[in-house]
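Q&A log
Question type: sequence-to-structure
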Amino acid sequence: MSRGVRRLVLFVLVVLLLAIPVPVFAQGAPTITLKASDTHFDFGKSPTLSGQITPATADQEIHILDENGRRVATTKTNGKGKFSVKLVKPRRNMDLRAQWLGTLSDVVPIRVRPVIDVNIGRVRLFDDVRAWGDIAPGNVSGRVTLELRRSGNVYKSRRVDVAPSGWFRTKFRVDKPGRFRVVARHDDADHQPAAASSNKSTTALPTLSSGSHSIYVKLLERRLKQLHYKVPPPDRHFDYRTSDNVIAFNKVQGRSRVGYVTESTWRALASPKVPKPKFSWPKYHIEVDQTKQVLYRVKKNKVISIMHVSTGAGSATRDGTFDFDSKLAGYSSKGLKYPSFFDGARAIHGWPSVPTYNASHGCVRVPMWQATWIFSKVEIGDLIHIYH
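Response status: OK
Response body:
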């Protein structure tokens, strides 16, 4: 190669080297800045990260690193040394820095708040209400706290697991009437605290009477059974048996002795007076309260069954303590259904008419449909306490 050619090649190489952009540090030590368009936001958003290097140099590669040094984004500078890049839907809190060569920016905290959707089902008194929803991102750690709120106050609370998809659900038993909503809360080390509220739902307190047919009848009967009134297996049909137990309940509560249900009945069922036996002995016995016109089965000083009865008009049923001395499976010659006798000819027995007041000739009348059941619960020698 001639000397002229070598000079030409060397000239070309120098020109090419001069064309490669390199940082010029003559103006001082290199620096890099970083900022975010938003540092606190709901999951699903993509904040813009931007900054500038000094000295301003074009086409420099910038790396965005998290607190563990992992690269989460890469971009390049423009002619003024500026850069910009979107952080696509970050799923957790991060502390970010921009890196240019060996230079790091100050830390920029990114805080992500999960997005929660929560719902409440239909609220019915003495029933379970469903609460469900989802949280995004779906791989959040920990649990979601669900609060059932009544008139703004926390009524019940429960922590529930979150499925990998973000789905969660639970149930709450509603024992008081009111207006309810569910609040869902989430808080863990990787995210900002988040909360959401459902729509509001109010307990219906419908009027029920003989012939009514609905889920509310079943809930009514289930509640009466829970309170120890002698109801048949709860169903959706309001019949004479339901009416007899509503009468018994109203008697115990000191309410009007009617066999239908109104809003005030529901409220009384939610906060009932719980009857207590007058006698603690023997461990098992029968009590008849002639003032309230109800019969109690008592075991270990607790009322375990309550029935609507009608005792003798005037003083035909004597107050006192008696034992059962005979029983008759079937009907007596006077039409008493399954009588259990105490105090001479007086008996607990089924009768077609059981009014809300004392109307018998001295016996304790019970509804016909309950006669065989109470007969089966009385043994010869058991005691019965009768009082006003």
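Response note: The CA atoms of residues 34 and 51 lie 4 Å apart.
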